[in-house]
């Protein structure tokens, strides 16, 4: 069973665009549907880890809002960080899924049991499942729904908010 999902931010949780306001603060757009799916996943007792190459206060804020278990920013080797998280949680890569969109996600996507990429990810990225949704536009929700349906958890997952 998948117990933890690893999420990239730019291009997966967001559409990859970065906006700076007049004060130089970085802004990103997150999809509420992705957030709902993440919260519901966590309510099943599952884990979520954000592992991203960039650093942004807005990512920390989004992770706090969603009560995400692990947040690592400014990461060079996502595979190494994922390995440390799995060791801490007492899990292995066979219990993990991940979504990524670019070359820096390759090692982690190659290691997990179920790998995903958004519709608009680079073509060269070889994954188990190419999603129908673009990054920042429901790709993470689509990934989570596929996992829970494959593990017969959809009824329990969808009732978490009723």
From TrEMBL:
Its cofactor is Mg(2+). Pfam families: Hydrolase_3. Keywords: Hydrolase, Magnesium, Metal-binding. SUPFAM superfamilies: HAD-like. InterPro entries: CMP-NeuNAc_synthase, HAD-like_sf, HAD_sf, KdsC_fam. Substrate binds at residue 10. The keyword Iron-sulfur does not apply. It comes from the Bacteria. The keyword Metal-binding applies. One of its GO terms (molecular function) is hydrolase activity, acting on ester bonds. Mg(2+) binds at residues 8, 101. Belongs to the KdsC family. Homotetramer. This is 3-deoxy-D-manno-octulosonate 8-phosphate phosphatase.
């Amino acid at each position: 069973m998948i117990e933890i999902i690893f999420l990239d931010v730019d291009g997966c949780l967001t559409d990859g665009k970065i906006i700076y306001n007049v004060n130089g603060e970085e802004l990103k757009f997150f999809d509420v549907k992705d957030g709902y799916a993440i919260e519901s996943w966590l309510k099943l007792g599952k884990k979520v880890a954000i592992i991203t190459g960039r650093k942004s206060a807005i990512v920390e804020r989004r992770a706090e809002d969603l009560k995400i278990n692990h947040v690592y920013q400014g990461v060079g080797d996502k595979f190494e960080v994922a390995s440390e998280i799995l060791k801490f949680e007492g899990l292995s890569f066979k219990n993990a899924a991940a979504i990524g969109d670019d070359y820096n996600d390759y090692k982690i996507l190659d290691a997990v049991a179920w790998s995903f990429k958004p519709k608009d990810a680079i073509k060269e990225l070889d994954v188990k499942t190419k999603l129908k949704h673009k990054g920042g536009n429901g790709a993470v929700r689509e990934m989570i729904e596929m996992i829970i349906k494959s593990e017969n958890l959809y009824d329990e997952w969808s009732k978490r908010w009723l």
